[in-house]
């Protein structure tokens, strides 16, 4: 029996009767799904799309119902059915992992030694530096990893505070929150190509936000930033700088921004800079020192990166590091609130720190550097391959994100799991992307383009033939 | 070589020199750790403590440094050393898991069949109902689980929206955010015994918040709530109700609160109720129908529960369900923001939904009910054992949280990993807590009390002897 049938045929106990619906005017989810733009289905590359809009009928998730025990099935048959579902799912995961190209996730890792850890409910609830009474935690790994990042970004172990987050968004939510709590009337500045979590933070935190236009590269437009800073003079500035934008991998130049702040009269007690380093913040320290470095030697307030991106991990995670003096603002006493913990989340995944510790320890600084170099090299290989095949590309100097024309075949986009925005798509050349894989991809892309071109030409021909017949 | 030595002896490359510290006045983390109250070390039970305060020297986390490759060690020796660290850590996890009593986590689960899943980077980034292009996701399991909860809380599949969160805090942050976006000038009402994330949300979201006193049981004081609602008449109400408070397991009565809202003239278009069901919200549906049920048949706005609590999972997670019509407010267009996704986090753990799906499927509705019954029964067994041994206890009728006098021996508190607040401690009788374990615990507790009493008596005696000698 199919699991869907199975679940449908065995209704849950009486509490769950179908008539059990509140008597409000109905607002149906499936009638409000997504907008459709650009001719192809608008699947948001990073899902920052409205939940409401005209109906579409594809890209809706399927559901695997929770399968209740059923009189028709023995316990063994049921267990076998569950094992089959999981087995099929794992096969799908293998295939999807093999073909993936579009998201900045390093899918190559070997955590075999750590497999037994899923027997334990590991939880680092609260502050990483102070143990709670819950003993099943991994703070020793977490603090080890945080110290590693503190050294990477050049801040004394005693002067930083930070934690391992659930994802890049939590790092940005935390950085901007710390900025706001230190500058309660601060205006948030961020480029229009910032990750969507940045403007989500502004909305959540009720901050005035200035969305600054970008240069062609995707970098923040320094002149526009300057004008906005001048216009809001009198209010402190909370700035989000992108160390690699989501779509084009563009790096905002910290030094130029610091110069703009100086020119416009913002002294260090009047601004807070959060660096969103999602992917590239983890790569830049390993490049030659000509790059505009992110370091706490400069007057920045916080840096965050993702852990499942460049390092690679089964679970999404990230790291945020700030100055301890700034995080103290979160513990100021607000009489009617009295909420004074310093992380965004409460319970915190205790497996993530162990994954990060394990990879950093096994690869070491040198291993990380080699991975970065190979990615940068292979990004150029992809760019050259595409250009030699006649495809226009863009690759920022400080980036492994190769941008090119959005493929017109939706099936191709889905097959290679490309993130698209407007009329562009990108491949992010991560450590698991080999030259062989890039070769396959380019051949497939060129064939997809050829199919689209032939179809377009055929349409013209058939229109001409129809016109001929009519004439 | 010890890993700490090892890491210290192999400095990272030049970028990481020790002098690399920004020249600001120093604020040292270890000089500002925690407050010390109640005579024993104040380890926050759920870590909702200020990060700043007088120095304490214990409960500071240790750090396992990331171990760089080292010329003195061969690759094999290094791998062996890493395996030894992980092996020792797993032993510690086993011991700590065995002795745990204080937190509402079900530590008994068997996800052996799912172990291979940690080979994959599973990520449900964005909305659960609309697939992103990233193919390595588990939305089919997520939507299956969400549908199960929708049936549990009696809302039509087409009328709800929800997602699987990282933890209980994210559920509360989401519920209250949805409340605020539907009622931008809404005042937040919650009892003083609410989880700390509730008032954290008020601070993050810049909402006016009213902290309502509680009854002795830990329930919200309905008279005080009424007075506060009257005082703020004219502004909509966003209410957080506790379906089991963190410390005493007290359940706010949804029906009484609805009656209070009616009496004070708040119509359904003037309030939003979020139910924080962390632990007990997952248990209450399985009790007899005399309990004041949480259901979307009543005019509530959202419900959240944790997944790692009653269900049990290796990673913290949770579920939040709201009405689709309410979540649409998150997608309204705000010109300078343009952030319109509906989850708090961006990347989302894709393993968590599979754990939940697997347990719910294997246990089925009946299995869950049996677990709830056993926990309720064993909570009463613990209460009776403690009382028969002369220990005063408290156990709310709708609760598996047994509250008693805080043990004076800190080592005892740490051994059994009890969550304490002020002068009380509690044991939460989860499915993994057997009667045998409770027996061990009570015997140990009574012995601990005896040691403390004897020591106190001895102090009196020695003071008397000293006075005698002086006389």
Low-confidence segments of chain A, given as residue ranges, are: 1-23, 34-58, 332-340
Measured between the Cα atoms of the first and last residue of chain A, the distance is 59 Å
What amount of the residues of chain A lies in strands?
5-15%
Note the main sheet of chain A.
Answer: 7 strands, mixed
How much is the radius of gyration of chain A in Å? 25 Å
User: Taking strands numbered 1, 2, ... along the chain, how are they ordered across the largest sheet of chain A?
Assistant: 1-7-6-5-4-2-3
> What coarse outline of chain A follows from CA principal-axis ratios?
globular
Provide a count of the helices of chain A: 11
Helix content of chain A: 25-40%
Based on DSSP secondary structure assignment, what is the total number of beta strands of chain A? 11
What is the structural class of chain A?
A: alpha/beta
Could you explain how this protein is built, in words?
2 copies of one chain form a homodimer. Chain A has 471 residues and is of the alpha/beta class. The longest helix of chain A is centred in the C-terminal third of the chain and has 38 residues, at 351-388. Mean pLDDT of chain A is 87; it is low at 1-23, 34-58 and 332-340. Chain A has helices at 3-9, 75-99, 139-152, 168-182, 196-205, 222-231, 254-263, 324-327, 351-388, 410-415, 435-470, and strands at 160-165, 187-191, 209-212, 237-242, 271-276, 302-306, 318-323, 393-394, 401-405, 419-421, 424-428. In chain A, α3 crosses α9 and α9 (351-388) packs across α11 (435-470). Chains A and B meet through α2, α3, α4, α5 and β3 of A and α2, α3, α4, α5 and β3 of B. Chains A, B: GO terms for molecular function: carboxy-lyase activity; pyridoxal phosphate binding.
């Amino acid at each position: 029996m199919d699991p869907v049938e199975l679940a449908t045929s065995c209704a849950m106990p009486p509490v769950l009767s179908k008539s059990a619906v509140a008597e409000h005017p109905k607002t149906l989810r499936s009638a409000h799904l997504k907008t459709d733009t650009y001719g192809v289905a608008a699947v948001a590359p990073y899902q920052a799309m409205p939940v409401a809009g005209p109906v579409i009928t594809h890209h809706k998730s399927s559901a695997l119902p929770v399968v209740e025990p059923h009189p028709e099935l023995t316990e063994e048959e049921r267990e076998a059915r569950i094992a089959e579902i999981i087995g099929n799912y794992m096969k799908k995961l293998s295939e999807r992992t093999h073909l993936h190209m579009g998201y900045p996730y390093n899918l190559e890792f070997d955590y075999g030694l750590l497999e037994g850890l899923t027997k334990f409910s590991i939880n680092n609830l609260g502050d990483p530096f102070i143990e709670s009474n819950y003993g099943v935690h991994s703070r020793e790994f977490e603090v080890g990893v945080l110290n590693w990042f503190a050294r990477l970004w050049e801040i004394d172990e005693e002067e930083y505070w930070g934690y391992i987050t659930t994802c890049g968004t939590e790092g940005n939510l935390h950085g901007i929150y710390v900025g706001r709590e230190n500058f309660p009337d601060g205006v948030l500045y961020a480029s229009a190509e910032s990750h969507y979590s940045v403007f989500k933070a502004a909305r959540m935190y009720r901050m005035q936000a200035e969305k600054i236009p970008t240069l062609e590269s995707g970098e923040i437009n320094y002149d526009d930033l300057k004008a906005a800073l001048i216009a809001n003079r009198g209010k402190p500035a909370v700035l989000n700088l992108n160390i690699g934008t989501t779509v084009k991998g563009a790096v905002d130049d910290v030094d130029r921004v610091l110069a703009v702040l100086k020119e416009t009269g913002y002294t260090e007690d009047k601004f807070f800079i959060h660096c969103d380093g999602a992917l590239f913040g983890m790569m830049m320290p390993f490049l030659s020192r000509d790059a505009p470095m992110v370091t706490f030697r400069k007057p920045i307030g916080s840096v965050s990166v993702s852990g499942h991106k460049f390092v690679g991990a089964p679970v999404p995670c990230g790291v945020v590091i700030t100055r301890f003096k700034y995080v103290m603002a979160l513990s100021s006493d607000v009489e009617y609130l009295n909420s004074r913990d310093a992380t965004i989340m409460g319970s915190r995944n205790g497996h993530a720190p162990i994954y990060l510790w394990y990879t950093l320890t096994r690869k070491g600084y040198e291993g990380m550097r080699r991975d970065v170099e190979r990615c940068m090299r292979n990004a150029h290989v992809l760019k050259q391959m595409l250009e030699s095949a006649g495809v226009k590309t863009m690759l920022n100097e400080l980036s492994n994100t190769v941008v090119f024309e959005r493929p017109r075949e939706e099936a191709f986009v889905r097959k290679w799991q490309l993130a698209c925005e407007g009329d562009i798509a990108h491949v992010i050349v991560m450590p698991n992307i080999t030259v062989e894989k890039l070769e396959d991809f380019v051949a497939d892309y060129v064939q997809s383009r050829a199919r689209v071109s032939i179809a377009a030409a055929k349409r013209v021909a058939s229109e001409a033939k129809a016109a001929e017949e009519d004439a």
